[in-house]
Amino acid sequence: MANLQLAITAFGGPETLKLQTTDIPVPADNQVLVKVAYAGVNPIDAKTRAGLGWGAEKIKDSLPWVPGFDVAGIVARDAGEFKAGDRVVGRIVEGGGYGQYLCADKSALARVPDSVPLEIAATFPVAGLTALQVLEHADVRHQDRVLILAGAGGVGHIAIQLANINGATVYASCSTANVDFVSSLGAEAVDYHKAPVEEQVKDIDVLIDLMGGDVGEAALQCVKPSGRVVTVPTITAPRIIEAAKQRGIEAKGMLVQPSVEDLDVLLHAADEGKLRITISATYPLKQGVQAHKDIESGRTRGKIILEIPQ
Ligand SMILES: NC(=O)c1ccc[n+]([C@@H]2O[C@H](COP(=O)([O-])OP(=O)(O)OC[C@H]3O[C@@H](n4cnc5c(N)ncnc54)[C@H](OP(=O)(O)O)[C@@H]3O)[C@@H](O)[C@H]2O)c1
């Protein structure tokens, strides 16, 4: 049997993604062979494909390379405590989710409750973990006034809901088209088409910056002198941290960490109906080029997912 994958064949535009066929990999003792059902598509996938950031640096000598850090699927063969047919999800740090089979470390996999569709589970390893961990980094507490930039995106739409669960008052920036969506998640929508965010929100305790760059820097004006800032896009993090320092505000960057414990928190919240995940498009693997065009547009609502042929 063959293993169909979609690989980055060279750094460049979305068309550098090409289908390829390889052998089904053989798991090591500490690994599980997973038949992938769904893979999340994240901005890091497109940035890496374009040759940008730490992701590209890491894989530059490994092309063709199969992206996909978000993996939800079925255990293909018994492997210790994992049995064939078990439903699993994991943040696969080596990538490989854009393909039918991969070997995942047992320690990377969480079990997906029956009530949670695998498609939804596939949104958790990058976007969900980032949302959960950025709120921890920012130490979001009850009654904090929290501003989330890019509230309608993959990370933002989950972070709004988790910040609400923490008891924060949440403001989230978005375009006019996403005001109703962001409001429905429990945030006060800040429409950046109407006026600059910094003119609309003041005295923020916590800024969750999912935009970085000019947008992230301008939003520092919303933050109280004693406030906290976590800036998530890694490429512009040094600039935001320096700009915050100039204003006397503490800011830090972050890199999402794989954590089965945190995945379990998200899966449990979804199982209990406390998290509403929006998937705006599910593309078949062979339409991965379109999925990359979408994610690169910076305009997608919620998550974009690839469905892997079975
Ligand atoms: N450091 C890490 O470990 C880590 C982990 C995950 C993600 N990230 C980074 O974090 C960022 C967010 O990730 P994501 O997956 O949430 O991205 P995403 O899903 O691609 O975000 C898309 C959203 O951005 C919104 N947006 C675009 N321009 C905006 C603006 N000027 N103001 C407010 N919102 C705007 C869009 O909503 P509108 O159309 O309404 O504007 C859209 O819904 C990315 O840069 C990603 O690479 C870093």
Bound molecules: NADP nicotinamide-adenine-dinucleotide phosphate
Question: Can you give the mean pLDDT?
Answer: 97
Our count of helices gives 11
Distance between the termini: 12 Å
Q: Which segments are poorly predicted (pLDDT under 50) over 5 or more consecutive residues?
A: none
CATH topology of the largest domain: Quinone Oxidoreductase, Chain A, domain 1
What amount of the residues lies in strands? 25-35%
> Given this structure, which CATH class of the largest domain is correct?
Alpha Beta
Number of strands: 15
The figure for the number of domains is 2
The 3D shape can be described as globular
- Bin the helical content: 25-40%
| CATH architectural designation of the largest domain | Alpha-Beta Complex
* Biggest sheet features: 7 strands, mixed
What structural category arises from helix and sheet content? alpha/beta
